[in-house]
Design brief:
- It is a single chain.
- With 216 residues, this protein is an alpha+beta fold.
- The chain has a single domain, classed as NADH Oxidase (3-Layer(aba) Sandwich), CATH 3.40.109.10.
- The protein is 39% helix and 16% strand.
- The chain has eight helices and five strands, in the order αβαβαααβαβαβα.
- Strands 1, 2, 3, 4 and 5 form a five-stranded antiparallel sheet that branches.
- α1 crosses α6 and α2 packs across α6.
- The mean pLDDT is 94.
């Protein structure tokens, strides 16, 4: 698989098989992903892996934890056009794939709650960054994550980045023993996509080149 193939094949998987992914595979992917660009070679990413027994313990640990105030604004408020329509459409497309009507609030909340089970994935990483870091280092973290996900795709492993974990920063930090100077950015579910799950047939739209690029 070349880079183009990996980019086109990668998607956010929201239904995983229980088939395990071993720690050695995840370690190899993380090590290679650390070659991602980093301004000043700061390498701001701090990663915690949950897998196997620690995943079981984390799920049990989270069961009684209340939702927290978000660690950061996941989206600007208000989110104006054209960004608002793009976000709205993916939500509608996803729920339509699942047969969940717009009026079915319980169904929509139930689907969102699957975030907190990593959509059934057997493994995951939590991505943290030091609170002193600014936008350039957050950009570095994004490049690290994309590199990790493309490498996972090459290795036959599927992923789903999840900013939803911003509403459980304290719980996650406590479980993984992250020091207070670190703040959470996201989790990434890791495993193998369930090919029979309707939600995994969803492919998100992308704007055409002329909308987002200007050749000066």
């Amino acid at each position: 698989m070349n880079v183009t193939e990996a980019v086109l094949a990668r998607k956010s998987v929201r239904a995983f098989l229980p088939d395990p992914v071993d720690d050695e595979t995840i370690a190899r992917l993380l090590t290679t992903a650390s070659r991602a660009p980093s301004g000043g070679n700061v390498q701001p990413w701090r990663i915690y892996v949950v897998n196997g027994d620690s995943m079981d313990r984390f799920r049990a640990f989270l069961a009684d934890r209340p939702v927290e105030s978000p660690a950061y604004d996941i989206y600007p408020s208000p989110l104006h056009e054209p960004y608002r329509s793009s976000r709205f459409k993916i939500g509608e497309d996803m729920y339509a794939t699942l047969g969940i009507e717009r009026e079915d609030k319980a169904g929509r909340l139930g689907q969102f709650a699957k975030n907190l089970d990593f959509f059934g994935a057997p493994a995951a990483i939590f991505c943290f960054i030091d609170r002193i870091m600014g936008p350039p280092q957050w950009s570095d973290l994004g490049m690290f994550l994309q590199t990790f996900m493309l490498l996972a795709q090459e290795a036959g492993v599927d992923t789903c980045p999840q900013e939803a974990w911003a509403v459980y920063e304290q719980a996650v930090s406590e479980f993984v023993s992250a020091p207070p100077e670190l703040r959470i950015f996201c989790g990434v579910a890791i495993g193998h996509a369930d090919p029979e799950a309707p939600i995994n047939s969803l492919t998100t739209d992308r704007e055409p080149l002329e909308v987002f690029a200007t050749f000066v």
